[in-house]
Write a structure and sequence with these properties.
Global transcriptional regulator of carbon catabolite repression (CCR) and carbon catabolite activation (CCA), which ensures optimal energy usage under diverse conditions. The chain folds into three domains: 5-48, 434 Repressor (Amino-terminal Domain) (Orthogonal Bundle), CATH 1.10.260.40; 61-159 and 294-323, Rossmann fold (3-Layer(aba) Sandwich), CATH 3.40.50.2300; 161-292, Response regulator (Rossmann fold, 3-Layer(aba) Sandwich), CATH 3.40.50. By secondary structure, it is of the alpha/beta class. The strands form two sheets. It has a six-stranded parallel β-sheet with strand order 2-1-3-4-5-11, sandwiched between helices. It has a six-stranded mixed β-sheet with strand order 7-6-8-9-10-12, sandwiched between helices. It has helices spanning 5-12, 16-23, 31-44, 50-57, 73-88, 102-114, 129-136, 161-174, 190-206, 223-234, 248-260, 279-282, 294-309, and strands at 62-67, 92-97, 119-122, 142-145, 155-158, 180-184, 216-218, 242-245, 270-275, 288-291, 318-320, 325-326.
Length: 332
């Protein structure tokens, strides 16, 4: 049977209020009484009921975390950043995978709220109108991590996706390329369409190069899509000599497609990716990549959430952390 606070109080011959004060670290308990209660707690292996404590204090010290896919290394980094800071501030987390599915996101949001979480960290490639509306009605604060809310209504932590992407394309332009392709994941995702693609177009136009729509390819963020993109783009009458890829898997597919066709990277073809996951260092040549620091984004998002939950002063609820491009061997 589960040991309750009643059992501890009876065994220690104290009131339940005294046990509660000991469990919660209240110093207004005599040392001898505290020692006796702690000995009983250890002997009975009593574990405080977080739900019951939450009902009494209106806090459960639990945070919901909704991410697209924990099996994806890049999202796993974000989850680790969130969990590390949550532990530091003595919060537990409930982690759930949304599979980047709107209906599942909505269901998980309701589920988290039903578990009486104190706050939520949400990662979503597309904050859809339905999701936005559901978040608006949340009774607890929500912080977006690596996700863009165009209304700026919710607290968020990101990098400057536009500037980072612009710098990546500019690097290829400075290396002398005039035919640069943009290979992306789904364009219904805000970061892909509103930032990466728009930055690519602006960099091309600013350099007085031809903006050729045939050099823009969008598909899934997968290795196979990268290979297919290579096959499509290399078959053009005037094929590209450089590629800005929206993810590491896409970039590796492009590199392997080029190598299978007898092209040398970076001597003949240059590739820059956006992500900088562990895969970027595993492929040969190693990938030059825009760093998407999801560990840092997750950690900062969790810290921002703790501030909001504890009603601390916040200077800016839309946090932009620094970005950089990690230069390796896929460009000269």
């Amino acid at each position: 049977m589960t040991v309750t606070i009643y059992d501890v109080a009876r065994e220690a011959n104290v009131s339940m209020a005294t046990v509660s004060r000991v469990v919660n670290g209240n110093q207004n308990v005599k040392p001898a009484t505290r020692k006796k209660v702690l000995e009983v707690i250890e002997r009975l292996e009593y574990r405080p009921n977080a739900v019951a404590r939450g009902l009494a204090s209106k806090k459960t010290t639990t945070v919901g975390v909704i991410i697209p896919d924990i099996s994806n290394n890049i999202y796993a980094e974000a989850a680790r950043g969130i969990e590390d800071i949550a532990t530091m501030y003595r919060y537990n987390i409930i982690l759930a995978n949304s599979d980047q599915n709107e209906e599942k996101e909505l269901t998980l949001l309701d589920t988290m709220l039903g578990k009486q979480v104190d706050g939520i960290v949400m990662m979503s490639d597309a904050v859809t109108p339905k999701l936005h509306q559901s978040m608006e009605h949340s009774p607890v604060p929500i912080v977006l991590a690596g996700s863009v809310d165009e209304s700026n209504q919710f607290a968020s932590v990101n990098i400057d996706y536009f500037q980072a992407s612009y710098e990546a394309v500019q690097m290829l332009i400075e290396n002398g390329h005039k035919r640069i392709a943009f290979v992306s994941g789904p364009l219904q995702y805000t970061i892909n369409s509103k930032f990466k693609l728009e930055a690519y177009k602006k960099a091309i136009i600013d350099a007085n190069l031809e903006l050729d729509e045939n050099l823009i390819v969008s598909d899934d963020d997968t290795y196979d899509s990268g290979i297919e993109a290579w096959e499509t783009l290399s078959a053009l009458d005037n094929p590209p000599t450089a590629f800005f890829a929206g993810s590491d898997e896409l970039a590796i597919g492009l590199i392997h497609g080029a190598q299978d066709s007898g092209r040398k990277v970076p001597d003949e073809i240059e590739v820059i990716s956006f992500e900088n996951s562990k895969l970027a260092r595993m492929v040969r040549p190693q990938l030059t990549s825009v760093v998407f620091p999801l560990y840092d984004i997750g950690a900062v998002a969790m810290r921002l959430l703790t501030k909001i939950m504890n009603k601390e002063t916040i200077d800016n609820q839309s946090v932009i952390i620094p970005h950089r491009i990690e230069k390796r061997k896929s460009v000269k």
